[in-house]
């Protein structure tokens, strides 16, 4: 089996600690252990033994309560990435077909291409009239056929920050049911909304459904490496057999800390902290975006500490990524890494002053590219004028 290069993760691994300004982060400022532990002495007394392989009963109960599920419908994993990996590995066979939403975090794209015979895509598109990213329902219907085994969705979406509305959710379920396909929904940004209303979960709306998520984005705890799968109990039992070949268990300390975080009252406190950071930082980043109205167009995120904007400059997003990294020591995430072309994703969930200092470096590159564009337009204009004069003569 061969697997595609996961360009976004590989470039972040190579460069995120080498640049002066890392604007590729997509979560919020992580919580500290001391903010979670009420009794440090008890925490220090833990033995670093193997924990329960599928997650402790208490932790699984907390996750189940958040979805209205049962304990046996939860599998705890090492991060959302392992949740997605396990789900796609367990569901797809070599002769299967998968349909993947774009733009998207392309882990599911790479894995589906590795595990199945064919992968097609359907689109989120910019709906300018409603100022939102919307599901292209016709592209969904074209992508899903009777041969489709799995449909993959990210909601809230990475990189756009979009959230599907009730009509779009219902259409996804209708299409999945018609094809008798599994529906896998990555909900890792659920809880990180710009406004108060939490994103509705897909759980409970369809019988052939899996939810994946983790504590890295909405909860600000990427270092815990805790993720989970919500699925029918029979499917969870099947996926445990695949998990036995990967990391076997979460870590003991991560499981215990996650139990603290997912206790319902503490969970809401942590999510409110995330929303407070997003609401405080987003307006300042939007001011920067508005200062470039001549080249940037933008639909605000509904959830997540991420902005995704289109630019009008004579350079691909992959080339712009390389230029900013090499010349300005700035790491952004190019639209090419999400299957989206001339877009940039910039995170704003950490120190917003730091983010704006990095964007000041981006300003310099933007000005250089605009000058190049103006020079090229002027040259073409002179050449056109000269050609007309020769024709008239």
What does this protein structure show overall?
This protein is of the alpha/beta class and 393 residues long. The chain has 2 domains: 7-27 and 276-388, Alpha-Beta Complex (Aspartate Aminotransferase, domain 1); 33-267, Aspartate Aminotransferase, domain 2 (3-Layer(aba) Sandwich). It has helices spanning 7-15, 40-44, 57-67, 79-91, 107-115, 137-143, 166-179, 233-243, 252-262, 264-290, 317-328, 352-392; strands at residues 21-22, 74-77, 97-102, 118-127, 132-135, 148-154, 182-186, 209-214, 227-230, 296-298, 306-311, 330-331, 333-334, 343-347. An 8-stranded mixed β-sheet has the order 2-9-8-7-6-3-4-5, sandwiched between helices. Strands 10-11-14-13 form a 4-stranded antiparallel β-sheet. Strand 6 (148-154), helix 7 and strand 7 (182-186) form a beta-alpha-beta unit. Helix 4 (79-91) runs parallel beside helix 5 (107-115) and helix 10 (264-290) packs parallel to helix 12. The model has no long low-confidence stretch (mean pLDDT 95).
